């Protein structure tokens, strides 16, 4: 038996938070009975109906995508812009695990497994993300060592796991810096460098946990292997 909102999310219908809103809005029925409050637990095989739509138990799907620039990390977009979901050929109701900015490229995972997604996004599991940032000027050694010590954003410290200056272009006055963090807050990499006086003109996520892009070109994707899925889950267990 699991909480109703968790089962709804696991079937790929929507997020757990949105499922809670639907329950409170009296739109959810379990085995023909209306559910009006949170905390109700149901069997995984329960018949669930939302707005006259029955939720089917879908086969779980897991993808890694090399997100191109100018694509939204969302299921849909009110302005009609292309989303990461549009790039993957599947009938499953997949959604991205976390977000990358509109102009940020690189690795992003998608799934219809709500439990898997929630585990990977939960701060306690500390999934390391590595980025390559192109800065609008030369990244100084003073700022390098300042950042290595950690930095506060919104009165919360961001721990820098790894930091490396990849290259400097004196003529164009730009730098390439590789940075690894556990954080998942919106625009966090851009905000880190902005606090030190740098603009990030290009940003690419190189890896998510142990998983890298490999040979995936921009816009290409592949399914995660069973071994990769297990590795993520085992990583999470170790973190607890």
Quote the average pLDDT: 92
Secondary-structure class: alpha+beta
Identify the CATH architecture of the largest domain: 2-Layer Sandwich
H/E order of the elements? EHHEEEEEEEEHEHEEEEHEEEH
Report the oligomer: single chain
For the largest beta-sheet, the strand count, sense and barrel status come to: 9 strands, mixed
- As for the number of domains, it is 3
- State the separation between the terminal residues, measured CA to CA: 23 Å
Radius of gyration: 20 Å
Fraction of helical residues: 10-25%
* CATH class call of the largest domain: Alpha Beta
Count of individual beta strands: 17
> What does the overall shape look like?
elongated
Amount of beta strand = 25-35%
CATH topology of the largest domain: Alpha-Beta Plaits
Residue stretches low in confidence (pLDDT < 50, at least 5 long) are none
Name given to the CATH homologous superfamily of the largest domain: Pseudouridine synthase I, catalytic domain, N-terminal subdomain
- Please give the count of helices: 6
Question: How would you concisely characterize the structure shown here?
Answer:
The protein has 240 residues and is α+β, with helices and mostly antiparallel strands. It contains six helices and 17 strands.
């Amino acid at each position: 038996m699991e909480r109703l909102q968790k089962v709804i999310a696991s079937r790929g219908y929507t997020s757990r938070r949105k499922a809670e809103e639907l329950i409170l809005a009296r739109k959810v029925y379990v085995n023909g009975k209306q559910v009006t409050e949170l905390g109700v637990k149901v069997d995984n095989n329960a018949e669930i109906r939302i707005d006259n739509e029955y939720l089917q138990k879908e086969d779980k799907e897991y993808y890694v995508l090399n997100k191109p620039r100018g694509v939204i990390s969302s299921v849909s977009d009110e302005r009609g812009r292309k989303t990461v979901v549009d790039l993957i050929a599947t009938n499953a109701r997949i959604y991205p695990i976390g977000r990358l900015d509109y102009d940020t490229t690189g690795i992003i995972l998608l799934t219809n497994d709500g439990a898997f997604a929630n585990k990977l996004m939960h701060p306690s599991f500390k999934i390391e993300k590595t980025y390559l940032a192109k800065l609008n000027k030369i990244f100084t050694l003073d700022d390098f060592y300042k950042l290595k010590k950690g930095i506060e954003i919104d009165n919360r410290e961001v721990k820098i796991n790894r930091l490396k200056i990849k290259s400097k272009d004196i003529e164009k006055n730009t730098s390439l810096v590789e940075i690894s963090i556990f954080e998942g807050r919106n625009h966090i990499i851009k905000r880190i460098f902005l606090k030190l006086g740098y603009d990030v003109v290009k940003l690419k996520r190189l890896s998510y946990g142990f998983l890298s892009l490999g040979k995936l070109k921009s816009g290409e994707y592949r399914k995660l292997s069973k071994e990769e899925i297990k590795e993520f889950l085992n990583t999470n267990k170790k973190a607890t």
